[in-house]
Design brief:
The protein is α/β, with parallel strands linked by helices. It has 2 domains: 115 residues, Glucose-6-phosphate isomerase like protein, domain 1 (Rossmann fold); 116 residues, Glucose-6-phosphate isomerase like protein, domain 1 (Rossmann fold, 3-Layer(aba) Sandwich), CATH 3.40.50.10490. The chain has 8 helices and 9 strands. Strands 2-1-3-4-5 form a 5-stranded parallel beta sheet, with helices on both faces. α1 packs parallel to α4.
Length: 268
């Protein structure tokens, strides 16, 4: 597997849409922090062909996302393309020089959960993170009590630092998709630069990873409910996924089939 994923020192772009883009963001930040080389995360609809890269990693659960396939076509000749998908023999596999196919991580739900965390576990293991310890955290996250009753809140804010900022984005997306919730997400220290002004008793503010103690104090002063993440940020995302399901069910919604969404965005 390490022979397929980008080697240390390679200049890398990671492409995706929606949840896959947030996993790309997390990997790009973690790879640079690990000193493995320059790494950009690009939302596929904005294209990637402006700069040159040694390797492009394209993430798509279905392997059929049109924006990702079109972005790959814009890459300079000579860029090695690696795809990560859940579906063998999909268009993205055919477009790539090499592929990692995580068939076990496919899911019937429109909303991504298992594929996202499986992709990130793969990429973090590639960077040398201790995924066995993360798995233990995830087991606890599956059975731990929810940090609050989501039906008690009108606004949900997720904050993260470093690569965990991308998982704050993903947590917000899960509540937005599955439960139609008012959600926001920010790099943690950005929260004081405007967004904190709307925090109050109806807000739940949830941190992923280590966050500055003075920021936590400022959040408490707003009257918002502060949730300090207890687990590795990836396992904390599992708790947020559970909260999204609980809120959807409280609102009488189907968390697996949100309105206006499809399993894959395929354009004409």
């Amino acid at each position: 597997m390490d022979g397929t994923l980008p080697p240390a020192g390679a200049r890398v772009v990671v492409l995706g849409c929606g949840t896959s883009y947030y996993m790309a963001q997390a990997f790009a930040a973690a790879r640079q922090l690990a000193g493995r080389g320059e790494t950009d995360a690009v939302v596929a609809s904005e294209r990637a062909g402006v700069r040159s890269y040694d390797v492009a990693v394209a993430i798509s659960r279905s392997g059929t996302t049109t924006e990702v396939l079109r972005a790959l076509e814009t890459l300079p000749s000579g860029t090695r393309i690696v795809s990560i998908t859940a579906v063998p023999d999909s268009p993205i596999v055919n477009a790539a020089a090499e592929s990692v196919v995580l068939e076990f991580a496919d899911e019937r739900s429109v909303v991504q959960t298992r594929f996202a965390t499986s992709v990130l576990a793969l990429l973090r293991a590639h960077l040398g993170h201790d995924v066995s310890a993360i798995a233990l955290d995830a087991e606890r996250a599956l059975s731990a009590p929810l940090p609050f009753d989501p039906a008690d809140f009108q606004q949900f804010v997720f904050l993260g630092h470093g690569w965990a900022a991308a998982l704050a984005n993903e947590a917000a997306l899960k509540l937005r998709e599955a439960a139609g919730a008012w959600t926001e997400s920010y790099p943690a220290m950005e929260y004081r630069h405007g967004p904190i002004s709307v925090a109050g008793p109806g807000s739940a503010v949830w941190t992923f990873g280590k966050v500055d103690a003075s920021l936590l104090a400022d959040i408490r002063e707003t009257g918002a409910t502060l949730v300090e993440g207890r687990f590795d940020a990836m396992a904390e995302l599992v708790v947020a996924q559970r909260v999204a399901v609980a809120l959807a069910e409280a609102r009488g919604l189907d968390p697996d089939r949100p309105r206006h969404l499809a399993r894959s965005v395929v354009l004409p």
